[in-house]
Design goal:
It contains three helices and no strands. By secondary structure, the protein is mainly alpha-helical.
Length: 113
């Protein structure tokens, strides 16, 4: 049943994609085509990266924004993990005590019989 439903969804999805492609391809073909001869995407990306690095260095991004927020996040994470550890240790102690108590009760019943 689930396989049939998933197959139907897959077929409908493929039909929808084909419908959109058939409808949009003629529109895309009307756009003018540009050659990429005069452009270098690698240089553009390198320039953008270097500008981003300069802006980060000039704004002291790491010192003023990123480091305090990271420290705060790490402190909160540490506290949460310590609380979780404490909860789990208490829980395991309770379970251990229950098991011991059951074993003792069982021994007492066996001794009475």
């Amino acid at each position: 049943m689930i396989i049939t439903i998933s197959q139907i969804v897959l077929v409908l999805s493929i039909i929808g994609i084909l419908f959109i492609l058939i409808k949009k391809v003629p529109i895309l073909l009307t756009y003018p085509r540009y050659t990429l001869e005069g452009k270098s995407f690698v240089k553009d990306i390198a320039n953008k990266i270097s500008r981003a690095k300069k802006s980060i260095k000039s704004n002291n991004f790491f010192d003023k924004i990123l480091i305090p927020k990271t420290e705060k996040l790490l402190r909160k994470t540490k506290i949460s993990l310590l609380k979780l550890d404490n909860f789990l240790s208490k829980r395991s102690d309770k379970l251990r005590n229950k098991i011991k108590k059951k074993e003792e009760d069982k021994k007492e019943e066996d001794n009475m019989i």
